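Continued from yesterday's entry.
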Amino acid sequence: MSAARPLNTLRTFAVIAALPLLLTACGYGAESTDDGKQAEAAADAKKLSVDEVKIGYFPNLTHATALVGVQEGLLQKELGGTKIKTSTFNAGPSEIEALNSGSIDIGWIGPSPAINGYTKAAGKNLRIISGSASGGVKLVVNPEKIKSIKDVKGKKIATPQLGNTQDVALLNWISEQGWKVDAESGKGDVSVVRTDNKVTPDAYKSGSIDGAWVPEPTASKLVAEGGKVLLDEGDLWPDKKFVITNIIVSQSFLKDHPDVVEAVLRGSVKTNKWINANPDKAKASANKALEELSGKALPAEVLDPAWKSVTFLDDPLAATLDTEAEHAVKAGLLEQPDLKGIYDLAPLNKVLKAEGQDEVDDAGLGVK
């Protein structure tokens, strides 16, 4: 890939940052919340190289590794006497800003904001150090208006935000159907309507949109309102896997505190193992965390199908991130980026090897 400066990315990023919407998975409420929460470390536990590690994530199911890891104390256990301070975000730019400013050290985030953040900083601010989740994105439509894929032409389809992960995926899919849409305005053979996930169900009920390409649990909320899943995005990817959530770290924190980064990764790997071994308990734990963060738990009719559609894994599925970047370039939302160096998977592979698991690949996008 060339190292051309991502001018369109900066322009799009500026537009996105000005909107109280979402750049990744799903969002509710304010853009960010400093929870002021610190996990209780055992009084006699040994501290690592810092007293506290500041962790950020989103209050949604695609970030359940963080939700469950904090809720069940699995992350804190690996950190010993080093306390966790959590902050939650509902917009990718907010989390990237927090990482850049040092307000958080490590974060769970989607691929588009990771790519945008990395390219905007000329590759000097973050590294992706692990995967966390795959899948959980669907095209849900009004079955009275859209009965087949060809019926999508001429309809109004919502995505969470201009240039976000789902927006890019829909634009790419539209292009593959042979239809044309102006990426920035959303006008064309399909009307792409950028709508905050928290109001998408109401927009669907009012008839102002005919469907939405959205992550969980918004997709299952639309189904609960009578929508029909026309397409699961996983069906468009090899092995039905594509990255929806990564773990990022600031480069300075990774350099200065590798022991803390390794401990968080160990906690993440063990949390994903626990989630996959105890899906019902993990689902309940994640929903309890969501209730504490948002004041409202997800009802079973939304939670159950949403949970089933997300896969929790440690592999960052690096090749799919590269493909997602190419889709953004193709859509005209991104100049060809240089993503080499965006990954540093050495700490994760060290943890995986110690756990007796297979190491993962950076698809040629790792640090030298």
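--- second protein ---
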Amino acid sequence: MTSDVWLPLPPDGIEGLPEGPRYLFWDGGEDGEQPFPGDPARCAVYVVPYMKPYPVRVRPLAQLTGVRVIQTLTAGVDDITARLADIAPGVQLCNARGVHETSTAELALTLTLAALRGIPGFVRAQQREVWESGFHPSLADKNVLIVGYGSIGAAVEDRLAPFEVARVARVARSQRTTARGPVHPITDLPSLLPDADVVILCTPLTEATRGLVNAGFLARMKDGALLVNVARGPVVDTRALLAEVETGRISAALDVTDPEPLPPGHPLWQAPGVLISPHVGGPSSAFLPRARRLLADQLTRFVNHRPLRNVILTTGDGGTGSTGR
């Protein structure tokens, strides 16, 4: 029976790991060529290295012939679902719901406030030692549309509450009701977009959401609206976004881009009204404590044959699942 657990965090730093499995540290190494810590065929649980290049994260998949659980430390699992053909049937794929809500929601609010209140311009003026005052929009009294109302979208709304926004509209894959109000199906977007002053994208990247924010979507946004993306870069059609921001009709604050990393010379860098952060929604001081708690809980469940949390799909069963981002 396979009994190894591959962890991208040092096992001795994770309080509460259950006894039984052999815990092996593997994060790919600085150059991505770190040797495997043991026989891949003995690995029962593979925890995917965090913030490593795509080839590193998926490198072991085809050799993990005895794996039963693949646990990501990201909210999105599109890198793993793109390689399902390399994974044996019956493997549970779990995401990191509960780890990134705090940090990503903080950044969504940071980008929103910074873009609205003109912070990038103030920074540039400071570098020139120029006192440039001015009148800028406030988040107060704005209509906010959250596209992708999973756990991260809900965390964003939690943080919007003190800012006196006029209204929050919520959109997810399917319609439902929450304590805060209705969640609209994605088919309602055409009627919701024209009223939104701020559109915050938190949706996972799936075949249904790839290119969701296309020319038609952007054309329905009102003049002066702000698009904030803390989801995945390919949710937005970059060419369509450039066509809109270059006219000055809308603005954007992007933590993720397509392509990513954004190469030098790409027109998004210099596009008017665009604020870019380098995919830092998750990596903050809030990450490690929550990641450690998730891993200790998941592995305790695994060892005791209890249902795992955050199961997105089981390979070979035709499931597709979803994430909160």
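Residues 319-325 have pLDDT under 50 and may be disordered. The chain has ten helices and 14 strands. Will compare against the first tomorrow.
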